[in-house]
Amino acid sequence: MTPLLFLTGASGMVGTNIRNHCSAKNWNVIAPSSKELDLMDYSAVTRFYENNKPNMVVHCAGKVGGISANLMEPVAFLDKNIVIGRNVIMGARTAGVKNLLNLASTCIYPREAVNPLKENLILEGRLEPTNEGYALAKIVALRLCQYISREDPSFNYKTLIPCNLYGHFDKFDPLNSHLVPAIIQKIHQAKSSKELSVEIWGNGSARREFMFAEDLVEAIFLAMEQILNIPDIMNLGVGNDHSIKKYYQTVASVLDWPGSFTYNTTKPTGMVQKLSDISAQTKWGWQPKTSLEDGIKSTYKYYLEHILK
Ligand SMILES: NC(=O)c1ccc[n+]([C@@H]2O[C@H](COP(=O)([O-])OP(=O)(O)OC[C@H]3O[C@@H](n4cnc5c(N)ncnc54)[C@H](OP(=O)(O)O)[C@@H]3O)[C@@H](O)[C@H]2O)c1
Known about the structure:
The protein is α/β, with parallel strands linked by helices. The protein has two domains: 4-167 and 210-238 and 275-289, NAD(P)-binding Rossmann-like Domain (Rossmann fold), CATH 3.40.50.720; 179-205 and 241-274 and 299-307, UDP-galactose 4-epimerase, domain 1. 41% of the residues lie in helices and 16% in strands. The protein has ten helices and 13 strands. The chain has a six-stranded parallel beta sheet, sandwiched between helices. The protein binds NADP nicotinamide-adenine-dinucleotide phosphate (NAP). NADP nicotinamide-adenine-dinucleotide phosphate is lined by residues 9-15, 33-34, 38-40, 60-64, 84, 103, 105, 162, 164-165, 178.
C-alpha cells in the first residue's frame, strides 16, 4: 500500500515544490490548507492525526519571512512558530506516528558562531536579534524532536536545517520576500522603467548561502526514504556562499540589466555570514545540483510566467 505522508505547509514554497516533485507519486500525500486544518488549533491537529494515521510527517508550515517582516511582527513570528511546531510534533507523538521530518533554518545558529556552522553550535551563543523570535521557536521544535526520539528511540523525529532558499513558488512581494526574489523583483522593475540604479541594504558585503528549492526537495524525499540512517539534526546546504552584492550582480546579469548599485548602510542586513557546514550531508552522500545562475534563470522565468502574468 502507498504510504501516507502528512505534509504541513503544502501551499508554501517548499511544500508546493514537494507536491510537484516526481517522487511525490510514491506517497499518498495529505496536504490540508491552513483553512482546512489550522495548525494553531491543537484539538483539530489531534483529531486529524487520529483520523488519518500518517506513516510520515514532513513539517514545512510556519510563519516565514525576511528581515522586514521579522522586525515588524516579532510576536507573531515567535508565537505562531512555537505553537504550530509544538502542535504538529506533539500531536504526531501522541498519535504514535513514528516518522517525522522537521524543517529548521540556519537562523537558529548563534550570531557570533564561527562559519561554517556545524550542527553542534546550536545554543552555543546569542541569536541574531533581527530574527530571534523565529529562531527560538525553531530551536524549541528541534529540541522537542530530539527529546522525543531520546525518550523512545522507536520515534524517528529528525530535523533538517536548510540554508536560505529561493525558487519557484517563492514570495516576491517586497513586504514578505526573501533576498533572491526581492532582488529579482527590484531589478526587473528597474529594467522595465529604464532606471540605472538600484539600492542595496547595507554595504553588500554580508555573505549568504542560497539553495534552489527543488534541490532541497530532492534531499527531503531521500531523507524520508532513509530516515533511520540520517543524523537527528543535519544541515542541508550548497557548501559555498556569496556576498549580497554578488547575488545582485548575478540577477543583473541574468536579466541583462546594465545598471549599477548604491548602498544604504542605515538599513539592517542581519548576520555577517551564514554558511552551513555540510560535512554530515556529504557523509550522507547528497549534494545539490543547480548552479546559482541556472537557479536564478529558472526563478526569473517562473516570475515572468506566474507572478507578472
Ligand atoms: N524559505 C526559505 O528561505 C527557508 C530557508 C530555510 C528553511 N526554511 C524552512 O522551510 C519551511 C518552509 O518554508 P517556506 O519558505 O516554504 O514557507 P512559506 O512559503 O511561507 O509557507 C508557509 C506555509 O505554512 C502554512 N501555515 C502558516 N500558518 C499556518 C497555520 N496556522 N496552519 C496551517 N498552515 C499554516 C502556510 O499556509 P497558508 O498559506 O495557508 O497560510 C504555508 O503553506 C519552514 O519551516 C522554514 O522555516 C525556509
